[in-house]
Each structure stands twice: as structure tokens, then as C-alpha cells.
Design goal:
The protein has helices spanning about 1-5, 55-70, 100-105, 145-150, 250-260, 265-275; strands at about 15, 35-40, 45-50, 75-80, 90, 110, 115-120, 125, 130-135, 170-175, 180-185, 185-190, 195, 205-210, 225, 225-230. The chain has about 280 residues and is α+β, with helices and mostly antiparallel strands. Strands 4, 5, 6, 7, 8, 15 and 16 form a seven-stranded mixed β-sheet that branches. A four-stranded antiparallel β-sheet has the order 9-14-11-10, with no helix packed on it. The longest helix has 17 residues, at about 55-70. The structure holds adenosine-5'-diphosphate and phosphoenolpyruvate.
């Protein structure tokens, strides 16, 4: 946002995202037209041949997996929320297992939905926003996520003066320069701009991004004490694990490595594979 840029001195890291513009397949070792290149010395990342917004956040998460262990900090693909008594619950596992959905709980404070650092002192969120899967999203089932996807709200005084200069699916109001929310791969009515969250004709992996402050009970700043409960979200699509189990450490490690998990990740990998073919 422009007002944030005013005090923005040297960036810690710079991402050059060229969207659809492909990488050069004739480059040595390049096997596809998509590449994510990282230079840790120059602190730069170059994204070519993909419009998936997740590349930026996951790219920087990869950087954190390199930097944080050097400082004795664990970077974890996890969500975290906190109860009224300060008890933190950490949910971890692969994509589509419910980290965002289950941590966004009206009765608990949201610390973050996807990427955290766990240090000797605390849990802290790496990001400033959330990234929710929105296939089948309804107001009844997931009201906080639904309400966080804003399309001109009372925070934005010029409801009727929306422009869609970037992409039709970026809900951005240039008059107030307020980032509202961004939807990827969703199907919507071009006239009413009403989104059909049940439509998976583009992909099962539809996503919504929104600032964490749009969740009413977000914990700002996004930090908390050591987790009291650690929950492995198997989301086992193979029907091997019971719905809820209390595991001791070796069992947790065994089931984590066994990888009975959600199908969404498999869809993502399959689509990726088919696109490349
Ligand atoms: N019981 C459940 N718990 C969590 N998510 C569920 C459940 N049933 C269906 N879902 C759906 O699974 C998806 C989980 O996505 P999300 O929470 O964004 O996962 P992650 O953050 O781990 O990638 C959402 O579309 C959610 O609506
Ligand atoms: C961003 C993704 O998943 P998650 O929400 O688990 O990070 C993804 O599937 O690309």
C-alpha cells in the first residue's frame, strides 16, 4: 500500500514476478516453462511462467526454511490460534488439510493460518495475511473466512466505484488504494461479479487471500507463547486413520511420515504434472 511504502527503506528480499511470461526452456537443466529462481546472496527471487500467487508466499517460506534453522528457530507449515487463557494450539500438515479452516475459529484468537516460526521464546507468524482454500465455501460453514473476502465494504467508502484494472478477480479499489481480497481460479458471473464457490471447473484448488486483520479475532501482533497442544491434521483421504487419535511422539512421527493425507495436494500435483505434459 502506498502509505506503507513511504517508510519502507531497503527491502529484506525482492521478488520479480513475471506472471505468465515463461522461462527459457533452452536454458541448461530447464525442463519446463515455469521456474522459481532464488539468489540468496542478492536476496532476490525471479518467478517465471506461473500466475499462482502461492509461489510468492511459498517461495519466501522456502527462504525462511534456509534462514531460520541457522538461528535455531523452527519454521513450520502450520496454523496457530490461542484461547482466552493464552493456550496456543498449533495445527500442522500438508496443503488442504484444514490449517486455515480450523484455526479460523470464532472462539479463539487467530495468530496465523499457514507459516510460523517457533523459537525458544514464542510462536510468530511469518505473514500478514491468510490463504484459504475456498472450494465449497459458504457463509454458514465458514463465516469468518467468508466475511474476510471483501468486495467493497464499509471500510471502503466508494462501493459503487470499483475498477478492475489489474485482473478481474482482484478486488481492488484504486480510489482508496485498499487491498481488499484476492481470489484465484474461481468462477464468477461477469455481470453481477457473484462468485460460485461450488464451481471446480478450473481446479479444485481455488484460493482466497486476505489481510489477517479481516479476521475479527486476529491476534495482532501475530505472536503467542509455546503451543499447549500440537495437532497433526492428517485429513486422511485413504480412511486408514481414525477421525481423532491421541498419539505419543513416535506414533506422531510414524503417521507424519506415512503420509495418509488430503486429496487436495494430490490434485495440485496431478494438475501440475498434466500441465507440464
Ligand atoms: N472437517 C473439516 N475440517 C477442515 N476443513 C474441511 C473440513 N471439511 C471440509 N473442509 C474443507 O477442506 C479445505 C481445507 O482448506 P484449508 O483450511 O485452506 O487447508 P490448508 O490451510 O491446510 O491448506 C477447505 O476447503 C474446507 O472447507
Ligand atoms: C498454499 C497451498 O496450501 P496451504 O494453504 O496449505 O499452504 C497450496 O496448496 O498451494
Amino acid at each position: 500500500m502506498p502509505e506503507e511504502l513511504e517508510d519502507f527503506s531497503t527491502p529484506d528480499f525482492t521478488i520479480y514476478n513475471a506472471g505468465q511470461f515463461p522461462c527459457n526452456r533452452y536454458t541448461h537443466y530447464m525442463t519446463t516453462s515455469t521456474s522459481i529462481d532464488l539468489n540468496l546472496d542478492r536476496k532476490e527471487m525471479v518467478i517465471l511462467g506461473t500466475q499462482y500467487a502461492g509461489e510468492m508466499k511459498k517461495g519466501l517460506f522456502g527462504v525462511m526454511h534456509y534462514l531460520m534453522p541457522k538461528r535455531n528457530i523452527l519454521s513450520l507449515h502450520s496454523s496457530n490460534n490461542m484461547g482466552k487463557d493464552g493456550d496456543v494450539a498449533l495445527f500442522f500438515e500438508l496443503s488442504g488439510t484444514g490449517k486455515t479452516t480450523l484455526s479460523t475459529d470464532h472462539n479463539r484468537l487467530l495468530i496465523g493460518d499457514d507459516e510460523h516460526c517457533w523459537s525458544e521464546n514464542c510462536i510468530s507468524n511469518i505473514e500478514g495475511g491468510c490463504y484459504a482454500k475456498c472450494i465449497g465455501l459458504t457463509k454458514e460453514k465458514e463465516p469468518d473466512i467468508w466475511n474476510a473476502i471483501k468486495f467493497g465494504t464499509d471500510k471502503c467508502p466508494i462501493k459503487l466505484d470499483m475498477h478492475f484494472e489489474l485482473e478481474p478477480f482482484i478486488f481492488f479499489c484504486p480510489n482508496v488504494c485498499k487491498f481488499l481480497a484476492m481470489l484465484e481460479n474461481i468462477v464468477f458471473d461477469e455481470h453481477t461479479r457473484e462468485v460460485d464457490y461450488s464451481n471446480n471447473s478450473i481446479t479444485e484448488n481455488t484460493q482466497a487471500s486476505y489481510p489477517i486483520e479481516y479476521i475479527p479475532n486476529a491476534k495482532i501482533p501475530c505472536v503467542g507463547p509455546h503451543p499447549k497442544n500440537v495437532i497433526l491434521l492428517a485429513c486422511d483421504a485413504f480412511g486408514v486413520l481414525p477421525p481423532v487419535s491421541k498419539l505419543i511422539l513416535p506414533q506422531t512421527m510414524y503417521h507424519f511420515i506415512s503420509g495418509y493425507t488430503a486429496l487436495v495436494g494430490q490434485f495440485v500435483r496431478l494438475e501440475f504434472f498434466l500441465c507440464k505434459k
